[in-house]
Amino acid sequence: MILDDVRVLWLRDRALAALGLTDPAPFEELLDRGDGEEGRAILRFFDRGTEEGDDEGEAGATLLLLRAEWCRQDGEEAAGTGDTEEFAEEQQEEGPDECFPEQLTETASSVALEGSMTQKSKASPLQPTDNESVSGHVSALSSQSELGKLEQRFTTDDMEHTPQLQEQKVDKVCFYVALDEIPKEFVSNFTVYFLRDAKERVAEPSDLSEANEVLPKVIKFGVLTDDSLLMLKNAISQAFSPAVSFSQLQIEETSENTDSEKGNLPKTEKKEQLVENGNIKLEMPTVNLDREVTALATDPEVVEALESYAMTLQKLISIALEEQMKKVPEGNGPLAEIDLWRERNENLSALTEQTKLPEVQKVLEILQEAESQHTGDLQIVLSHLRKHHVEALDNVKFLSTLERHLKTLTYGTGFNVVLDTIPPLMNTLRMVWIVSRHYNKDERMVPLMERIAWEISERVYKAVDLHTLFKEDRAAAKKKLVDAKSTLEQWRKCYFAVRAQIEASGREEHWEFDRKRLFEKTDYMTSICQDLYDMLQVIEEFYNIIGPELKAVTGDPERVDDIMRAVNGLTSPMEELTFDPFSIENAHDWKLIVEEFKEEVSNHYSVNRGYI
């Protein structure tokens, strides 16, 4: 019986707790449905990658979805009620959630794909337990507590952001399962996902206690909302599409012999090497390869010609890889990094595709049959090509999930857009950190985040121009500084919120990144924005005191005009700066400017105490 497998029991309890259910009958009905095929799908989720016949590298990840909905007792789906429709309308009208509210608990190493939602589901087959609408936040289960604690946690106020089902007398709950696909009907607020790396074996624990300790280390899970599930669908379909499965690439490796003809082939026609847009394009060898492989392998002239071709091929691929590795992003922003990987992927893809041509494959087969000593060296180079191509392809597909947020961050109008972009961007970075094979290391993630911090700083730098700031309407200038400061602080705030969730999950690699690289610039700019705001506040207070009323009271309008001119002059040093105040290298010079301003303000108060 499938339920004899402790892993299935663990999965059942996680799904029930996530949806606020206690009756295991609907899940058990799922296991028996379709002659047990649904239950076998769950077992395949646990065993994928370890089953007999599975290639070691097959399927970088395997995804299991469990969807719940109300069904009629006769098995038909329950019709939507008025309350459900009203609930759906309420979802549509909701605005974006606050970034990382205190109630949000990140309990598994789930992928909090979206920190806020700007769109909600237009229809829901289920009803929440209260009037609260389903939040866009992902709330996953804790990997550090017993099931009883989990269920208790899901009934507390922390469940404010977790969808739950109400048990009804008329209808019953039905579960549906999907393995390694995300059908359209599964894109709902009541789908629980389980994600694991197929290369990691999922051993069967002896009991539930051991399962609660062991399984969360290799399986990531959580409840997903419409938007985040759509995003996961995009990420998974891109990152783990069959086209990039490791097993297929291994097969390709055995036949990959890039048609690189840098020089001449002895006893063959001279080959022309072309470089177009960074892509190396080579013609194939012109040796007559119409005979059988065994016959060609015994022809000394053919073997000699093909060995020369293989050496040229090996050298050219090495040069191409070296050139690609030398390239760096053109620009300081994060989009430049995506562009670099996209270009590298295009170039290496073009080179790799040439290795798949029948002529090149046959060349390699002939040399292998002839037991040529050049075969091994060529295979090593082809292996390097495959490795770098897979890396570039993988990085492009994961970084593409960030691209929409990064474009908004770079080109969006106004600080409000940037403020709303940072939370989902940070959550997507976490997803990349969890699932990516290459951006799950400090040496990759830190430079990317550093570029994001630079882009945020650049937005503030362009918006806050000291040469014109004090000439603007003071209220507008103060609001600009408040928004700029909030944007810089949002970067730090959301980073540490996600970092805390990762630590609470107990399963993911922690974000122990170099804080100086990520926050030194933004923190310093935050302090500059505060200094500028304080200056504007002082000027405003002066103007609130000095004016026509003061002239009337003192009877000395000329004296009042002199004071106003002196107040206007307080900002002259800022307007005439010859250095960049937002550059931390000029911190000492800026400190002198601030001290000079404060001293001038103090002098004005002292000299004009009788008037002010």
From TrEMBL:
Biased composition (Acidic residues): 83-100
InterPro entries reported for this sequence: DHC, Dynein_heavy_tail
Protein name, UniProt field: Dynein heavy chain tail domain-containing protein
Species of the source: Limosa lapponica baueri
Domain Dynein heavy chain tail: 304-603
UniProt-annotated stretches for the region Disordered: 75-101, 115-142
GO annotations of cellular component type: dynein complex
Pfam families for this protein: DHC_N1
Domain of life: Eukaryota
GO BP terms, alphabetized: microtubule-based movement
